[in-house]
Task: inverse folding
């Protein structure tokens, strides 16, 4: 009898407490800062172009082969506003295959790709889970605004900083030959 | 003269693979004499993905993601055993801080895995309430994992030579706060379920396996300890920082379903105390050794085993010196524990089959690989 009443008391006490569950589609629980959602490509505002040079290292290291990439000559490099010789032309990630492991972010030497907090996959389009370059870049810009993202290696990767470092060398030929390790790696790839 | 047919016909009963209480896609073919089980044949392979073969075509860094998907309830424990195998082959020294964090997270994962078992085992034998409590507490642990590794299930956090990145600054405080709740949750489940009269009737003296049979079947983990064999890899072949930690190995007496269940409750308490010790001892320092980005272990072979929540997991790794393993063989505890299912089931009632199957706590992702 008393044990039964104690049981009811426990139940009644929970009526007045906030539930630990959330009504998902209407209500989103916050994700942790380190949460790894779908990857997106970041935007170098100093040169107004993507960070990504299309070096293919993430494509090779991806365990599920969910990405494809193609590079072309960077017009901004010829104009002298960027230090990247090559720039990404085509990039596609198949979100259905992506397993959110974060290996692409680890291997990227150009601070070009980052795991965002995007994690909702459903879409009305048949090919909706495939993200091409404009989608990836717009998601990356949104991510940069929202998270206050900072490049890990700005001296090497941010065009404005990298060019300013080389500025005392003045001559355009210097820019071609003495551009350090990064462009040569792009050429190899 | 009578024409009555006196022959006795056994009935075949197919349990699974869609049966919700088989914890995945597991089928067992029971031969029944009335309500007694006279024969049992397990059928596995519904979740076979060829992980071991896939490993031969992936680089060492990528294989960690495959190990995440073997035992999908204790991911970090699985990652650790593979990474240790590669490190042993390469002769890498892992910084102490990384080792402590690894062990801490593995023990957290053990608690999370056992909590899941406690809840779902209650469901198996008809107790609806405990699963709500255990999932609530498990959620706190999953939140910690998310804040540390960035993912709730497939972490890819333990890397060859250390861990991916250091824990966030509020890690210690968060774990301590969550542990308070988890401790209370384990006690609450213990009070609710362990000595419940109906639960005792369903599990005491059911599916008994004696120590000798258990050892000869290759049973490991809490299932073996429930039969009274104090075998624990963390004690008998210590790895990482387990020698620094003090803990008891709970041992059962009868080897029945209740003992197997209660081992998990006791192990939760031990793991919680181990996590607290890790937090006290956690040193400062680097979390990653300096290694080449692409791991290329020298030619050779190595066998490494560790204590998973489900038992003794082993990895046999053969390297030919390239960036991909030549052969990788896993000794999955769930698969080996399934061997003991037949001796447990024989001569028991068909109504107890679910209670017995639930009590050995299999994960089909690991059974089939």
Result:
């Amino acid at each position: 009898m008393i044990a039964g009443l104690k049981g009811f008391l426990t139940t009644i006490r929970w009526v007045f407490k906030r539930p630990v569950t959330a009504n998902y589609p209407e209500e989103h629980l916050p994700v942790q800062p380190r949460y790894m959602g779908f990857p997106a490509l970041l935007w170098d505002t100093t040169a107004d172009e993507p960070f990504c040079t299309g070096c293919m290292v993430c494509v090779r290291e991806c365990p599920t082969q969910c990405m494809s990439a193609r590079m072309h000559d960077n017009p901004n490099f010829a104009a002298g506003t960027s230090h990247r010789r090559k720039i990404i032309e085509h990039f596609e990630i198949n979100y259905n295959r992506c397993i959110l492991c974060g290996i692409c972010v680890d291997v990227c030497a150009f601070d070009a790709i980052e795991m965002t907090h995007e994690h909702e996959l459903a879409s009305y389009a048949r090919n909706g889970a495939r993200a091409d370059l404009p989608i990836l870049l717009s998601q990356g810009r949104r991510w940069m605004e929202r998270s206050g993202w900072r490049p890990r290696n700005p001296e090497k990767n941010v065009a404005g900083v990298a060019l300013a470092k080389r500025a005392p060398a003045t001559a355009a030929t210097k820019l071609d030959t003495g551009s350090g390790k990064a462009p040569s790696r792009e050429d190899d790839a | 003269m009578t024409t009555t047919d006196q022959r006795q016909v056994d009935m075949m009963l197919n349990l699974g693979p869609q049966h919700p209480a088989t914890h995945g896609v597991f089928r067992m073919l029971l031969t029944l004499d009335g309500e007694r089980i006279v024969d049992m044949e397990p059928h596995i392979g519904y979740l076979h993905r060829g992980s071991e073969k896939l490993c031969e075509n992936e680089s060492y860094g990528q294989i960690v993601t495959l190990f995440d998907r073997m035992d999908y309830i204790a991911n970090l424990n699985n990652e650790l055993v593979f990474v240790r195998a590669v490190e042993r082959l390469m002769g890498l020294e892992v910084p102490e801080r990384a080792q402590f964090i690894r062990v801490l997270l593995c023990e957290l994962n053990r608690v999370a895995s056992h909590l899941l078992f406690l809840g779902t085992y209650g469901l198996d034998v008809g107790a609806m309430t405990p699963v709500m409590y255990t999932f609530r507490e498990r959620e706190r642990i999953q939140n910690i994992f998310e804040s540390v590794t960035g993912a709730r299930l497939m972490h890819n956090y333990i890397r060859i030579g250390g861990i991916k990145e250091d824990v966030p600054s509020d890690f210690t405080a968060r774990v301590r706060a969550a542990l308070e709740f988890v401790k209370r949750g384990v006690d609450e489940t213990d009070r609710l379920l362990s000595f419940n009269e109906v639960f005792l009737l369903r599990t005491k003296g059911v599916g008994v396996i004696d120590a000798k049979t258990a050892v000869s079947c290759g049973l490991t983990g809490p299932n073996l300890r429930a039969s009274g064999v104090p075998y624990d890899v963390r004690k008998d072949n210590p790895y990482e920082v387990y020698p620094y930690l003090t803990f008891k190995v709970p041992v059962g007496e009868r080897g029945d379903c209740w003992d197997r269940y209660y081992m998990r409750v006791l192990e939760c308490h031990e793991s919680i105390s181990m996590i607290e010790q890790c937090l006290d001892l956690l040193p400062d320092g680097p979390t990653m050794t300096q290694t080449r980005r692409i791991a290329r272990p020298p030619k050779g072979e190595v066998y490494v085993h560790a204590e998973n929540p489900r038992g003794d997991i082993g990895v046999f790794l053969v390297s030919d010196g390239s960036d991909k393993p030549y052969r990788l063989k896993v000794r999955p505890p769930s698969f080996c524990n399934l061997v003991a299912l037949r001796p447990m089931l024989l001569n028991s009632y068909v109504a107890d089959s679910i209670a017995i199957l639930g009590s050995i706590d299999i994960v089909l992702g690991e059974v089939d690989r």
About this structure: Chain A touches chain B at residues 20, 31-36, 61, 63, 99-103, 106-107, 115 (CB under 8 Å). Chain A is about 35% helix and 15% strand. The longest helix of chain A spans residues 133-147. The beta strands of chain A are 39-41, 43-44, 49-50, 67-73, 86-94, 113-115, 130-131.
